[in-house]
Design a protein that fits this description.
Order of helices and strands: HEHHEHEHEEHEEHEHHHEEHEEEH
Shape: globular
CATH superfamily of the largest domain: Type I PLP-dependent aspartate aminotransferase-like (Major domain)
CATH class of the largest domain: Alpha Beta
CATH architecture of the largest domain: 3-Layer(aba) Sandwich
Number of helices: 12
Number of strands: 13
Strand order of the largest sheet: 2-8-7-6-5-3-4
Strand content: 15-25%
Structural class: alpha/beta
Number of domains: 2
Distance between the termini: 43 Å
Largest sheet: 7 strands, mixed
Length: 334
């Protein structure tokens, strides 16, 4: 099976460019550089097999505003399960609409099954949709930053409901969107599934925790496909506290927005191309993207070369990291 590149392969880059990993500035992911402080974890959390955690689910329902939600070992685990779930409940030989630009694990998962794939640059029009179709939306999009409004997605959901299909929305980066355009509060509708990620906004990608919100019938079906200990105990303990800590969340959002503005200003000084993104990443369209990617790597700056090879995605740096990036950019592109 093909392994996709999402950034984060620092050891591979260190070997390729012969620069020790500790000397790199890694801005290749959309993960917050500001990390939720890990609390003291009780020893029994480490020692016992992980059990369903009502406190975690209650915290997630409150934080996301979801009517029904399930914890998973990262939203990636749900992405890989959806095609099988669809086959079992909607059938095969269906049309799957996927964004041409976006997190490619979605496309990979569906292509490995017997579905007709349609790639879109703009959301498909109602007249294009067919019975029991599935439309995948990444909102906001990674890496383009394209954001669809609740009103637009609500209209799309109404049409998909009439056709008996699914609208699947990946909201991994929604935490930094204000006002929120999340559709998660509408997931009592059997035709809508919403994915959320803990790792991005909270800077905790390593604990591998995400959520899926959907009608109970789909949550039960996903649970039937999942392992008995889907989410480890320490991840549940940490996330419960993080999801309830509103003061930290408010400070985190403010800090990320400030750092994102500083990064965008720096990029504007050196690149005349359009810049898009969110408060967790900034993407620069560049005709010489592979060349500039290589030049930055030679200086120990690791960013994400987008799949289409026409843009670079910069993760949000801390102020100290921004100073390092500015020094390199001034040297390379004065």
């Amino acid at each position: 099976m093909t392994t996709l590149n999402h950034g984060g392969q620092l050891q591979q880059m260190a070997t390729e460019y012969q620069i020790p990993s500790e000397q790199w500035l890694d801005l290749s992911t959309g993960i917050s550089p500001l990390v939720y402080p890990i609390p003291q974890i009780p020893s029994d959390v480490w020692q016992q097999l992980p059990q369903p955690c009502p406190k975690l689910i209650a915290a997630a329902n409150r934080y996301y505003g979801s009517p029904a939600i399930m914890a998973t070992s990262g939203s990636q685990s749900i992405i890989s399960k959806l095609p099988t779930l669809c086959h079992q409940h909607l059938g095969s030989k269906l049309t799957i609409w996927l964004p041409r630009v976006g997190y490619k694990e979605h496309e990979k998962a569906w292509r490995e099954h017997d579905y007709q794939i349609c790639l879109y640059d703009q959301l498909p029009q109602p007249v294009q949709l067919t019975a029991r179709c599935v439309v995948i939306v990444i909102n906001p999009n990674n890496p383009s930053g394209t954001l669809y409004s609740r009103a637009t997605l609500t209209q799309l959901l109404c049409k998909i409901e009439q056709l008996g299909g699914w609208l699947v929305i990946d909201e991994a980066f929604m935490d930094v969107i204000s006002p929120s355009q999340s559709m998660i509060d509408k997931t009592s509708n059997r035709h809508l599934l919403v994915l959320r990620s803990v790792g991005k906004f909270f800077g905790l990608a390593g604990i591998r925790l995400g959520f899926v919100s959907a009608a109970p019938v789909w949550l039960d079906a996903i649970a039937a496909q999942s392992s008995p200990w889907e989410v480890n105990g320490p991840a549940q303990f940490i996330a419960t506290e993080a999801l309830l800590n509103q003061s930290w969340q408010q400070g985190q959002l403010s800090d990320l927005q400030d750092l994102a503005k500083r990064l965008e200003l720096l990029l504007q000084q050196h690149f005349t191309s359009s810049i898009s993104g969110t408060a967790l990443f900034k993407t620069v369209k560049l005709t010489r993207a592979p060349e500039i990617f290589d030049q930055l790597c030679q200086q120990g700056i690791y960013v994400r070369l987008c799949d289409e090879k026409n843009a670079l995605r910069f993760g949000i740096p801390t102020q100290l990291q921004l100073n390092t990036l500015a020094k390199v950019l001034n040297e390379l592109y004065p």
